[in-house]
Amino acid sequence: MLRGLSRAGLGKIESNEQFIELAAKNGFQAVDIDAVSLVEAHTVAGARELLAKNGLVVGSIGLPVEWRSTEEVFREGLPKLAQAAEAAAALGCTSCCTYVLPSTDLGAAHFMALATRRLRTCAQILGAYGIRLGLEFVGPHHLRTRWQNPFIWTIDETLDWIDAIGERNVGLLFDSYHWYTNGGTVADIEKLRADQIVHVHINDAPDVPVEEVLDNGRVYPGEGVIDLAGFLQGLQRIGYTGAVAQEILTAEAPTASPESLVERSKAGFDKVYAAAGI
Predict the structure, then answer these.
(1) Where does the Xylose isomerase-like TIM barrel domain start and stop, copy by copy (predicted)?
(2) Tell me, what's the pLDDT at 257?
(3) Do residues 217 and 206 lie in contact, with contact meaning Cβ atoms separated by under 8 Å?
(4) What pLDDT, on a 0 to 100 scale, did the predictor assign at position 245?
(5) Cβ(41)–Cβ(16) under 8 Å?
(6) Is 212 helix (H, G, I), strand (E, B) or coil?
């Protein structure tokens, strides 16, 4: 499994180039990054060279389509999706991910119908470029009642929805935080197949009751109470070999330097990977 980074939780990083340099300097192997901006700044050949020189691959891109809003907003974003897919594919990236909030102000059945059709369209566009779509179920309890109607927030519900979307390139973005806030076990991971997982996020949770864990209250790997060794071992046992990317969401922006925060990330990865025997 590749050690990966997203920019979330790393402070004020000034550019893609700085992000790539810091990731490489600290032994990371994958970055979640905006492929379009990287290609626009360097050309495809230049971006490939920059990544290769730093020993990095693109772990995943974000879905640049607002599928939760109106039909007009959704349709307006589709050209951006094709552009992002083309850039990602040119850089060898095969993953695009989005999150699914666990409640909605629309009727749940209505929202499910809209979202299923829209995400199927996104998956079809991505599939034309050889890219998979990862759906991230979101587990923190406070978000389950943040909006009027409950939606979905568990592994099984998300897998059922993926089946309903009906495109072979759709799978899970599997996040340790959401696994934990659902009361997930290593056995739950071992029930999955590696091909059901598109991408993985890793982060840790503070020592508070699980019902009080906030989505933007995450801590760095190895600094909290999640069984990240078991999480990684479960993924390894089912044969997952993709990127495991840190994503730290906090209520306040970090004040420490990006250099120190990436070093802190490296220390956390070293700790939990060693505990997992990886």
Answers:
(1) 20-252
(2) 96
(3) yes
(4) 98
(5) yes
(6) helix
- Cβ proximity of 192 and 240 under 8 Å: no
pLDDT for residue 39? 98
Cβ neighbour number for residue 7 with a 10 Å cutoff? 21
- What are the mean pLDDT values of the chain's consecutive 10-residue runs (278 residues total)? 96 96 98 98 98 98 97 96 98 98 97 98 98 98 97 97 98 98 98 98 97 97 98 98 96 94 97 96
Other C-beta atoms lying within 10 Å of the C-beta of residue 44: 15
Task: Tell if the pTM clears 0.90, that is, is over it.
Answer: yes
Q: How far apart are CA 183 and CA 80, in angstroms?
A: 37
Tokens describing residue 236: 């390894």
Task: Tell me whether residue 266 is exposed, middle or buried, using C-beta atoms within 10 angstroms of its C-beta: 0 to 12, 13 to 18, 19 or more.
Answer: buried
Question: Of 67, 85, 80, nearest to 128 (Cα)?
Answer: 85
170: its two tokens: 């759709």
Contacts of residue 139, Cβ cutoff 8 Å, sequence gap at least 6: 102, 153, 154, 177, 178, 179, 180, 181, 182
- State how far the Cα of 208 lies from the Cα of 96, in Å rounded to an integer: 32
In degrees and rounded to multiples of 5, residue 199 shows phi and psi of: -160, 160
**b/e code 114-134 from CB counts within 10 Å (16+ = b):** bbeebbbbbbebbbebebbbb
pLDDT of 95: 98
Number of Cβ within 10 Å of residue 199's Cβ equals 28
Dist. CA 124–CA 101, nearest whole Å: 22
Look at the block and give the residue holding tokens 């997952």: 240
Q: 């040119």: which residue's tokens?
A: 90
